[in-house]
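INFO batch 0412 | record 1 of 1 | parsing
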Amino acid sequence: MKFHRCLVAGLLLTAFVCGAPEEGQKKLLEQGRMIIYFRDTEVGYEQYSFYQDGKDHFVMETLSEFTLPKGAGNMFFRYQTSERMGKQYQPIYYDENFWVNGAESYLHVKFGKDGASDNAYMGGRVLNRTAELSGPIRILEEAVFSLYYPLVLRYDQLSGENKQEMLVYIPKIAQELTATIEAAGDSTVTTALGEMRLQRYFITIGAFQGVTLTTNEKKQLIQIIIPRQELTLSRDFAFDLKQTQPEPPTE
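INFO prediction complete | emitting tokens
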């Protein structure tokens, strides 16, 4: 399988950087690149960076490009997002710019104690919407896959067969939905670089078919399987290796 070939190619290559930066200074905590497969065919990538910004704030940035082949829409997608979070990875604002076959759209969402408000341009229409929120939430978006990373950070204490209900906000539809996250067990994989412990989570959102996440002991995203969209995302370990290599000396 692609997943196990990637594991053999390289594991344990990206590390967290510890310590809180001063206010106004961003410190990179984690970055990765996920290869996107549609029905076992590579169709694109998503790259993400996760920063600590001051003591209690975090920033998540993503960039992705992928093309669905003929028979599945024959469409080119490009997404660029930025999210600022507070304690417990609660969103403060979320910006999303995306292109479908070259047509540009955008979403800008602000979150407060009582709800979310946005201004957006989608489908040739300008939108200004509000949504009530009934508790702490996490953002999930159908085509921005790395948003599962801060979700895992929030619920990393789940273990065994524990299941927890949560609230998620879907920016494109400006709605809050109920979801569940379940720790689906762990396993150990032997690779050329040693052993790695993997943790799996199963997420169900509303009535949608579940999503399976696999992370390592550092909570890095290793694999995302989305059966409803026939998509699998696998970590690009070659990208990780490139980040760890020193830059060549300049003359």
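INFO post-check: Residues 2-244 form one domain.
INFO record closed
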